[in-house]
Amino acid sequence: MEEQVTVFKEAEVPRLSVGVSPHIRAGDSVERIMWTVVVCLIPPLIWSIFLFGIRSLLITLVCVLGCVATEWITQKALKRPITVKDGSAVITGILLAYTIPPGVPIWTPILGCVVAIYIAKQLMGGLGYNIFNPALIGRAFLVATFPVAMTSAWVRPEVYLTQAPQVDAISSATPLYIIKHYGLPALFEKYGSQGKVYLDFLFGSMPGCIGETSALLILIGGLYLLYKGYITWHIPVSMIVTVGVLSWIFGGEGFFQGDPIIAVLTGGVMLGAFFMATDYVTSPNYSTGKIIFGIGAGALTVLIRLKGGYPEGVCYAILLMNPLTPALDQWFRPKRFAPPKGGLK
Amino acid sequence: MDNSALTFYKGGVHPPERKELCEKNPIEVMPLPQEVSIPFSQHFGSPCKPLVKKNDEVKEGDLLGALESGMGAVVHSSVSGKVKAVEECLNPMGAKVLAVNIQVDRDSAPIAYQPTEWRNNSPQELLEKVKAAGIVGMGGAGFPAHIKLSPPKEAGVDTLILNGAECEPYLTTDHALMRERSKEILEGAKIILKILGIKRCFIGVEENKPDAIRALREAVDKGKEDNEIQVVVLKTKYPQGSEKQLIYAITQRKVPGFGLPFDVGVVVQNVATTYAIYEAVALGKPLYERVVTITGKGINRTANLLIRVGTKIKDVVDYLGGTREDLRRVVVGGPMMGFAVPTLDIPVTKTTSGILFLTKEEVDESPYKGCIRCGWCLDACPMGIMPNEIGIYVEADRAQETGQFGVFECFECGSCAYVCPAKRPLVQFIRYAKTKAKR
User: Nearest chain A Cα to B371, which residue?
Assistant: First the structure.
């Protein structure tokens, strides 16, 4: 079949665009990466609505709107290009919501949004120039301003896969709180058995922050990002393995009596390892640096959990590693293929 | 050696090949245009000195420009006709160069070149023939071939590599040549081996060109002589055809920064250059025509055209039936390293391997953003340098400090910019940094 085409003779050729090589580009863009991350974060939210009720959705919406609005107003005020469409503020909002207990008053996170976007991101120069993970700065600020709500407004999940736990003083306490104050046996007693604990924790039917409880759903999202090549294995694997190993060695009554699986499945380890510590801007660019970053974040998490004042340490662990990023990038560079003779300059 | 595909170990990208647009096309001879503009500078080095003036009659193959001093290559007339002017014209890189404009006598008899026996010539005589034919590296850089073929004795060159990787997407020039002129390329290889006084030669071809590999292997089997010529299969990965990556893939030798292939005992020639060397030595024909891939979705018909040097792109477009409505960009060379041209009034030169007519959907023109520090460029860079840092330093007006990131090792393959999700013009940043940084 003859194809119908409009053909120009040389004299009629439309004006040509010029530009620097390469003239073709891979399909991935900042927008596509960011919105893919958003999609990967949706399953834990849906599950959270089942677990903790509609409050999960409302708080997440408040956070997303708060972050997007803050970004828009800030960029307007600073006369910068408006970049809310790139999706990065949406991610910050979702991640901030996911680290908040579902029982807090719904308006609580707004202040966290302002701090996360205005101070931690835009005042640092915007996307690409922030030193700290904005969502985690927002959460840290909320913990400091609303210490009671942020550490006790837990909600007992409405769905338990195994058995409904006894209603008692610790029924809505997080597993990490129980481990810290009552020990591992108390946890097993509460949930029935060690196996049931694993199962519940894998699926996330335990009290916890809005989006951090289901290790499985977070893992699925994280694996998809790995498959797309948007993140690499280095940080998640090194961080999770470090948390597991150190918890196994130091987390029990004696050495090597801790439970690495519970340590990894509880709290924010999975969410932090796949979605927060892998933030491009605030983590190292190159593989060696990434592994050290992950090990550091994992070790600090366990240190805070075991010796610090809080039952959970992921947030501060990542925040403490963030400012090391430029140094790690300086120290651990790619190996040059063939530097000039006489060594590197 | 086993038959598994060889490659380099670090970095590289896999852009869509788009070779299907043109790879099946046989080499087709383009009729003579009305006029040609032959630049005096089609090579790396200083321009030639013009030997003709207005109203001179020239014959196909006549010398137009002579070597004056330093590095360079002579230029011949690609047509018979009358010199209309010696004036400036725009070359594909966007620079104004002196060129000779010839009104083509389309009725003149074509010149027939007769094969001569070259095996009786001494290496020095062969080298002189290469020099007299004005041969330059036809892969794109345009390095004069006779200089490449006279390495210093102390370099201890022991290996010749023919570059048939053609790793740039779209381009099928070398592919068509290797498929249809495999015997001649092999003959060219033997000439180069004799000039260099060595026995070992590898012909590296990416595995996406199985018919070319087959044709070359057949030619090698039939033409066995007292030398070791071997066709090696390379993995299809950009920039496999980059000199340093190619040498590493085949010999595991690393050419150091600021170094040349003969620092590791290797001479590399493109297969099209090898074919030109064959024509120069065995036929006595100077380099004044070449195969050019004309492709892309923006041209009415794609072709592997044998074109006289100096033919304007606009004449090529008219011969192939015009361009399509959604044509957006015309690139001379490959899509990764080629030059976008602002007009079609530009001549084909000895180094023009392809002319791409790209449509809106093929060219990415999205504006660039700030670096989000994903680090993808670090994984894509085959040289292990840091394009992200160089870009940020350039933006911060600190380009002079970028030597520490390896800016001078960059050969501008564009892999970093290709993968960059923020669409940053990293090659542009690096070019700028090279002008400012301290060596």
Answer: A128
